[in-house]
Amino acid sequence: MRFQPKLIAAAAALALGLGSAASAQTMRIAHVDPDDWTGSKKGAAAHVFKNIVEGETGLKVEIFPAGALGNEDDLVGQAQEGLTQVVLVSGAMSKICPPAAVLDIPYSFASATIAWDVLDGPFGDALAEDCLARTGLRTLAYGETGFRNFTNSKREIRSPEDMAGLKFRVQPVPLYIELVKGLGGEPTPIAWTELPNALSTGVVDGQENPVGVIYNNGLHKLQKFMTLDGHVYAADFILINEDFFQALSPSDREVVRRAGRVAGTMGRAIQQWTSADGVTRVQAEGMQVYAPTAAELQAFAERAQPAVVDYLRGELGADAVWIDRLQEAVAAAAQ
């Protein structure tokens, strides 16, 4: 038997000794990144959120970082059931709200600022409303995990033709498999925890991740070449259980909304810093970094986008309209 989210949330509140008064309420916020606010985008966002909420309301905020409450799939499940009130997740969102997968269409965003304009505008608002109706989770704001880039140990990649014959570790997600196949590489789904060993032993030649992730996890020490192609812009979703949110007083809801937006902005800022700093650091430690020209990026997009879009249209069915809505929003933001 599956309990209703409201009943579970109420039971959790009693178990935590939360009483009915706002001054006694505790809000749990969880994510899978490190807690260090100086280098962790989700860590920074969580701490800013906590400081604003605790400083301007009677609510208490308890942070559970570094996967203390489970992986992202676990966290969204807990948030839907009301056991954890606020979660910061990225890839897990498309599993519970399929239209969110359109954000992973490769080479959609030419820059982070275009992505911000799209997510903070009508498209992002509409996606948030759609996901709220499907999941019971309100998107307070969009943060940033960053642009994903290819690295490998064999050769410099300047064109899709350079991908041929190279084995790339990808997440065990069909969209990423189609992306690498479309570019002519050989995708190999491997769990994140197994990646360093796979690179060290030559099971795969390369991988793809944001620069900060590559540097902070020492992957640059196992790879020689990086291409800053930015094939996917990964967004963070700052989510709150809707039943919990609506049970707050109007004034507390307004503070929580604002705290979410500031937290998302903070996460973006930290991500931008770690990315720029990461490029300098990996170069200083011997990695060769190549930034493709606009014409070269167009060649990558022409190879990768059709394969992924075709896959998504088949998967989304009637929800494939979100592909067109994203493309329209990006075109408008780029003007």
Molecular structure report:
InterPro entries: DctP_fam, TRAP_DctP, TRAP_DctP_sf. With 335 residues, the chain is of the alpha/beta class. The chain folds into two domains: 5-144 and 235-276, 3-Layer(aba) Sandwich (D-Maltodextrin-Binding Protein, domain 2), CATH 3.40.190.170; 149-232 and 280-334, Bacterial extracellular solute-binding protein, family 7 (D-Maltodextrin-Binding Protein, domain 2, 3-Layer(aba) Sandwich), CATH 3.40.190. It has helices at 5-15, 41-56, 72-81, 93-96, 112-119, 122-135, 174-182, 195-201, 211-216, 242-247, 250-284, 294-316, 321-334, and strands spanning 26-30, 60-64, 86-89, 137-152, 167-170, 186-189, 206-210, 225-241, 288-290. Strands 1, 2, 3, 4, 7, 8 and 9 form a seven-stranded mixed beta sheet that branches. α2 runs antiparallel to α11 and α5 (112-119) crosses α13. The protein is globular, with a radius of gyration of 20 Å.
Query: How far from one another are the termini?
Result: 52 Å
Structural class: alpha/beta
Tell me the name of the CATH class of the largest domain: Alpha Beta
SS element count, helices:
13
Residue runs with pLDDT of under 50 for 5 or more positions: 1-23
Average the pLDDT over all residues and give the rounded result. 92
How many domains comprise the coordinates?
A: 2
Examine the secondary-structure arrangement and name the CATH architecture of the largest domain: 3-Layer(aba) Sandwich
In the CATH scheme, what's the topology name of the largest domain? D-Maltodextrin-Binding Protein, domain 2
Name the CATH superfamily assignment of the largest domain: Bacterial extracellular solute-binding protein, family 7
Percentage of β-strand residues: 15-25%
Principal-axis shape: globular
Task: Give me the count of strands.
Answer: 9
Protein name: C4-dicarboxylate ABC transporter substrate-binding protein
GO molecular function: carbohydrate binding
Organism: Rhodovulum strictum
Main location: periplasm
